[in-house]
Structure formats: structure tokens, C-alpha cells
Write a structure and sequence with these properties.
Layout: H1 2-19, E1 28-34, E2 40-50, E3 53-58, E4 61-66, H2 78-87, E5 94-99, E6 102-105, E7 110-113, H3 129-135, E8 145-147, H4 153-156, E9 160-161, E10 164-165, E11 171-174, H5 176-183, H6 193-202, E12 210-212, E13 218-220, E14 223-227, E15 236-242, E16 245-251, H7 274-291, E17 295-297, E18 305-311, E19 314-319
Parallel strand pairs: 7-8, 8-11, 11-12, 16-17
Antiparallel strand pairs: 1-2, 2-3, 3-6, 4-5, 6-7, 9-10, 13-14, 14-15, 15-16, 17-18, 18-19
Helix pairs in contact: 5-6
Length: 326
């Protein structure tokens, strides 16, 4: 299994390079320490310019898993999922999931969207946000705002480090619906209990520095919230706008660049309200396709930046190349 995972990890890195071949402004991979089996640990980030904003996508790492059908297209025959994967030159028995927090430097503010898996993910090769921030030229103390798109573990895991806030000078922004759901003791004894405990440990200690944003609300000038409920009860996405240029941070609206985008009606295991999640996918990506906007998806192939066009039953993902260099 160890050899298999390493091979998958290497394959994932190669696939990411083919999907977006390092042509974004500031593309970099900073070599860090070497782990016990001799394989180097990389802090990967990609930086691009959006108007006057400097946007850096940070890789928190990747994780391999088997049986895509158990996660994606759970309301479809396994054969249908395999067929769609084959049509897109992807393996049918396994997949690689990436995690991509985003740092937006507006000048007056340094805004971090989501925090990865944190210290709890490092043994498995994730939790690389701190390394990636350093490689991109930022210290945790420079982050002035942390936005939590929703409160699943791979988005809040890096909020605390060694029992203390990882971003000592930041204030926090999230949706009221999301916070109230996960904090509520009614989650005890339900499938959401693990998430409830994680929120109590990672989010609630930061409550005094937290403000809540609703649909259409402003985080800082040039960054506004949009409701996209379904994946979680209060899942939010964000619009960036600077000097007439716009981009959408779609968080977990779509969790796979083929299975979730080409078939937005297919159910995803981790979508808590599956009909609402499907409706949000179609609403959000209809807008992105119609307005020809770039987007960054938390689980899209790193560096997670691209476009979509309407196609057949859903959308085709088009990775960014040199659009942000010109």
C-alpha cells in the first residue's frame, strides 16, 4: 500500500503539471526537508494577479483514495461512473483529492480562505499550508482575515496550531447558518457529531474575533459572499473583484473536476443536502460559464484555477494556462 500511495502521489503531481503547466504568474515549488524514506517534501503554491489583487493558491497536500463510485455518483450505477472516468482518461479504481486554500493580498488586507487539514493531517502528508504560505512569501502573522467557507475538517483543521490560533493577528469571517449548525449540541449522537467536536475545538475558541457574513455581504472591499448551500448547511462562496476583473472562489460547490462538473446532478457522499448541493452547482457554474469568469475550486486539480463551458449535461473544466500572465 505504501508503494501504491507513493506512485499515486507522483502520478497526481504529474497530472497537475500537465493540466496547468506552470504558466501562472509566480508559479513555484519550494523544496523543503526530506522525509524518512528520502522523498522530498514540497511546498507548492501558484500566484496570479487579479487587477490589483495578488492571489496565491496554496497546496495543503493531496490524498489518494480507492473506489470513486463510493464518493461520487452514489445515485448512479458504478458502471456509469467508470465510463465517465474512462472517457476523461482517468483511472476507474482510484482517485487523488487535493486541498487548496487561497490567500488574497488586497494591499490593505491579507485574506486567507480556509486552512486545510492542519497538524492532524501531517502524518498522512497533508497539512502543508504553513509551508506553502512561507514559500509564497507570507508569515502567518501577516494574515489579517481568515474566511471559513464552511466547517468540514479539511477547511478548519489549520485554524489552531499547538492549541493556539495559527493566525495570531487575524479576525475571522464565516456564515451564521454554518456556525450555528455545527456548534449546536443537537449534533451529538448524529453523523455530524465528529464535525461538531472539531468545531468546538477549532472554531469556537476564536468566536470573540469572529463576524458573520450573509449572502451579498462584504468581507473587505472587493470581496463579497454568495450563498451556495447544500454541501454543508451554510456553505458560502466568494467573489473577488479588482480593477474590473472578477473571479469566484467556489470552495466545495464541485468536488471533482469531471464527476461533479460534467454531471452536476450526480450525488456526492459528502454533500449533506444532496438536492440543494446539486442546485447550487448548477446555479454557480451556470453563472461562471455565462459570464466567462475564472474560478478557483478547493478540490480542483492543483493549481485549482480554471474556467468552465456548458457541455452536454453539465460543464467542461478548462484549466488556466497563461491568461493571468498577460
Amino acid at each position: 500500500m505504501a508503494l501504491q500511495l507513493k506512485r499515486r502521489t507522483l502520478f497526481a503531481a504529474g497530472a497537475g503539471a500537465l493540466a496547468a503547466p506552470g504558466l501562472l504568474a509566480g508559479a513555484a515549488s519550494a523544496q523543503e526537508t526530506t522525509d524518512k524514506d528520502g522523498m522530498g517534501k514540497n511546498a507548492d503554491f501558484r500566484t496570479l494577479k487579479l487587477g490589483s489583487f495578488r492571489v496565491s493558491v496554496i497546496s495543503d497536500g493531496t490524498r489518494a483514495a480507492d473506489n470513486p463510485h463510493e464518493i461520487f455518483g452514489t445515485n448512479q450505477p458504478a458502471e456509469s461512473v467508470s465510463k465517465l472516468l474512462e472517457q476523461n482518461f482517468l483511472p476507474t479504481s482510484s482517485f487523488v483529492n487535493g486541498f487548496s486554500p487561497v490567500l488574497v493580498d488586497t494591499g490593505p488586507e491579507v485574506v486567507l480562505f480556509d486552512t486545510g487539514l492542519g497538524e492532524g493531517g501531517r502524518e498522512a502528508g497533508t497539512g502543508k499550508l504553513a509551508e506553502g504560505l512561507k514559500a509564497a512569501g507570507y508569515a502567518p502573522e501577516q494574515v489579517t482575515v481568515v474566511v471559513i467557507t464552511h466547517m468540514h475538517g479539511d477547511h478548519i483543521g489549520g485554524l489552531m496550531e499547538g492549541g493556539k490560533p495559527a493566525f495570531a493577528n487575524a479576525r475571522y469571517v464565516t456564515g451564521q447558518v454554518e456556525y450555528d449548525f455545527w456548534k449546536d449540541g443537537a449534533r451529538v449522537g448524529t453523523p455530524a457529531e465528529t464535525g461538531h467536536k472539531a468545531v468546538l475545538a477549532k472554531v469556537v475558541p476564536l468566536a470573540e474575533k469572529m463576524t458573520f457574513v450573509a449572502d451579498g455581504g462584504e468581507v473587505v472591499p472587493g470581496i463579497s459572499a454568495m450563498a451556495a448551500f447544500g454541501h454543508s448547511p451554510g456553505h458560502m462562496i466568494y467573489r473577488l473583484e479588482s480593477d474590473g476583473k472578477a473571479m469566484i472562489l467556489t470552495a466545495d460547490t464541485a468536488n471533482h473536476y469531471v464527476l461533479s462538473l460534467q454531471r452536476p446532478d450526480w450525488e456526492v457522499r459528502f454533500d449533506m443536502d444532496k438536492p440543494a448541493a446539486s442546485a447550487s452547482r448548477k446555479k454557480v457554474f451556470d453563472m461562471i460559464a455565462t459570464d466567462r469568469l475564472p474560478f478557483i475550486g478547493y478540490h480542483m486539480p492543483f493549481p485549482s484555477v480554471g474556467f468552465v463551458e456548458s457541455q452536454d449535461q453539465g460543464y467542461r473544466f478548462v484549466p488556466a494556462s497563461y491568461q493571468f500572465d498577460i
